[in-house]
Fold Heme chaperone HemW.
Amino acid sequence: MAGIYLHVPFCKSRCHYCDFFKSTKLEYRVQYLENLSSEIVDRKDFFLEKNTKIETIYFGGGTPSLFSLDQLFHLIKLLYSRYSVSDNAEITIEVNPDDLNREYLEGLKTIGVNRLSIGIQSFRDEDLKMMGRRHNARQSFQVLEQVFDEGFQNVGIDLIYGLPWSTAEDWLENIEIVKDYPLKHISAYHLTIEPGTKFGKEKLAKKLLEIEESESEKLFWQIHDRFKQLGFEHYEISNFCKDGFYSRHNTSYWNEIPYLGLGPGAHSFDGDKRYWNKPDLHQYISKGYQPGYSYEILSAQDRFNEKLMLGLRTGRGICKEEMKVRFNEYFKDVEKQVNMWINREFLKFENGHIRATRKGWFVIDGIIEDLFIV
């Protein structure tokens, strides 16, 4: 099994917090589609196993909903013609509320999209305006009504918390709104102020400061506890789902399942090597351009560190026996530190797996860093 990710690096405007690879030059979309189509064909033999079943297709960005239905259908048909796509493949598209209407949603269902990830970020107009989002709260409510009216079952939303201008009570209103809709997946990300973004420049000028870590932790657990009450499983540090509705595509990343990334800046993994496309839109859309990529062969140490990092960020954790069998030399090197974190009750060993405790999950990135082999 495997997955395919297609990067759509276009946005009408740039949000104040975003440092993802993207462009606001929408006039490039036609040439981009042509070269993306060429890359789909050129890399049809990427996977090491012949006739590898494609279980997930993911349109991410950027803003994939800036592609027309005809453009998206062209790409989906091309993928089906060149790869062995499973009959029950999960096909996800990231969408913005202001791009959607009933006709577009009906068209998405018709062309085979069966999972939506909606960039809500907040249901509060003040938050949306401060973050530079181009939709408003009314549009978010409207699109959620339309999505479920059109019969979509597998629908998730993104939310951002830790906003410096917002109180915990303000933000938690978002969760209370969530319970009014039959959503299956929530991604809740803490605001990170990245250099080079509008927020990053405001931080340098001391016009915007990140919230205190103690406040971040309080919010993290309020979110965890309330979503749990609403029947969501906290299955990865930033992701919550109803039973059986985890993101199959993202989970494949965490489980070392091969995936092909298409488009500038996209990454791939074939089971042995990590590939990445150059994040250069101008080069990618130039006529006659042959999509190129770089790669590295992952060492046993690299694989150990990745398994450790990706596994400990999930609710399931890492299988101790698997780590000992696959990476015995490296696991022996960190086993004493693992036991130290267990004794301090930041990690626990349960049902054969090492996972974070409630005390440890909020600081799991620091624990992972401590356990890395360098």
